[in-house]
Amino acid sequence: MILYCPHITPRLRYIAGFCGTELFDEPVRLTSDKKELLAFDGPRINYSAEPIEDVFSIVPAGLLFETGITPQVISCVEVDGRKIFYTTDGDFPFDIFSAAFYLISRYEEYLPHHKDVYGRYAHIQSLAFREGFLDIPLVNYWLRALRAALDHYYPGTRFRYPAFKFIPTYDIDSAFSFLHKEWWRNLGGALKAFGRGHWGALAERIAVLRRKRPDPFDAYEWLDSLHLYCRLRPYYFFLVAARCKGVDRNLPLASAGFRELIQYHATGYRLGIHPSWQSGDDEKLLQEEIEWLEVIGGQRINRSRQHFIRFTLPETYRRLLRHGVDRDFSMGYGSINGFRASVASSFYWYDLTKEEATQLRIFPFCFMDANAFYEQHFSAARAMSELLHYYRHIRKVNGLMITIWHNSFLGADPEYAGWREVYETFLKEEVFWTP
């Protein structure tokens, strides 16, 4: 396909590249030469305000020709049951390139905004939340509509039809509940249980430490069996903070049990860094954590997911790139489930302040167990319904589905009773069996 525009900008080149990859097997050709457009034998798009006979027209709204970051006046309307914005005249009802760019680049997160209690961009300020489309991969639906419109205008066009893909990922924030922790942490926990009269919890801690029963957070062998049965190859993101402080509560790096756990997973799975909260305030710690995980795991660490989904654009992504991370799995909210970038496809990060595409590939997630449990206060049954909602929408657009689970939810801790069964049922009866 060829796309004509009198003024080709970095923004247009970026979003045309993304849309073209989703729609076609070959890259979209960009041209500012009208003669080249008219001579092209194949589907053609005229991305300009000037009508061109027998060429499919998308009229620009202007965002892709701007530089800098300025507040956008956005008014959403509904067409065929889906929200659209940047409406214009032409053969398509809106400027899909500007709208997709606005959402995928996370343009709104560069504008002045209030942060949540953890200092993160608050989801309640997002256009997707305010307009009620946070729960669907809207950009993928737009691309499906564009494919249909082009197919009608240019019958016989060969399109790319990607297959649905599911990637399970796990954040290991607290590898074990009792095992391999410093003696003083276990002693403190035992005294607290004793003082509160929680005899069952005290007895469980003692039994686990005496190796009479498994640790309640130990779901690793069970997960191995589940992955083998469903033929899945997941990612494990390990929190390896040098100091146990604040929300960084994993095992000490000196723990032999912790090192053995990482080495075990490195032999059969792909590892990623789960940068500590502390590393967000001290960049040296990020490099130290990556290097430690590389040494213990024996593999290059180029994947990341921010602990507590704590990231700020563009600073966090630039920091990751400086330290060799070129794949990030943090694109989602740590306060609600849904599609933060309104897309169920991976994409390269566009640095708006530098006006350039980068080599950092973003893999967005749509569901995290901790969001459903702690933030949305869902039961296990309701979380299953939410999972199925995302799954069915993503399958409909043949998109990429990424979920986040924690080993603590999938073990034997009674606080999370029923969540393990939800995950197992979801994988075995939906993901594995659906053609």
How would you characterize this protein structure?
The chain is of the alpha/beta class. The protein folds into two domains: 2-153, no CATH class; 165-177 and 215-431, Glycoside hydrolase/deacetylase (TIM Barrel). It contains 15 helices and 15 strands. The chain has a five-stranded parallel β-sheet. Strand 5 and strand 6 (82-84) form a beta hairpin. The radius of gyration is 24 Å and the shape is elongated.
Tags for this model:
435 residues, alpha/beta, TIM Barrel, 2 domains, five-stranded parallel β-sheet, four-stranded parallel β-sheet, 15 helices, 37% helix, elongated
Concise summary:
This protein is of the alpha/beta class.
The separation of the N and C termini measures 31 Å
- How would a textbook summarize the main sheet? 5 strands, parallel
Radius of gyration: 24 Å
- Strand runs, count: 15
Q: Give the % helix.
A: 25-40%
Compute the number of helices.
Answer: 15
CATH class of the largest domain: Alpha Beta
CATH arch. level architecture of the largest domain: Alpha-Beta Barrel
**Which class do the helix and strand fractions yield?**
alpha/beta
Content of β-strand = 5-15%
* Biggest sheet, spatial arrangement of strands: 9-8-7-15-14
- Mean pLDDT comes to 94
CATH superfamily of the largest domain, by name, is Glycoside hydrolase/deacetylase
Q: Report the CATH topology name of the largest domain.
A: TIM Barrel
Query: What is the molecular shape?
Result: elongated
Topology as H/E string?
EHEHEEEEHHHEHHHEHEHEHEEEEHHEHH
Number of domains in the coordinates?
2
Low-confidence stretches: none
